[in-house]
Amino acid sequence: MKQDPSKEAGCSYETLARQMNVPKEHVDNKEALTTQLQGRVNELHSQLERLEKEKESQEKQLQDKIRELENHVDCLEKEKEANEIRKTPTDDQAYGERITKEMNVHRTWTIRRRTLKRE
Length: 119
Hints:
Blueprint: H1 5-9, H2 13-19, H3 30-87, H4 91-118
């Protein structure tokens, strides 16, 4: 049994015909209007299916991109940790830096003393 599109839409065939831009001479042809409406419904269903597939595809692409970015963040965090470890001076390095500073201070004072003796 065919469905009555005017009952489903809750309006008359004339209103449906106007909404579908059907010429006035075809308004009384309920069979043609029903066929036209069914065709439009089928178009909309296929469009909806296509859009759902596109949505799923985009969702998958975004999930892949999120995973890629999370991996990149993990790599950057590990690299940062490695750099922090390298920047933290060991006891030997700290001792060497302190000795170097002391030598620079000693050299500066030696130069000043020599300069003062000459004057």
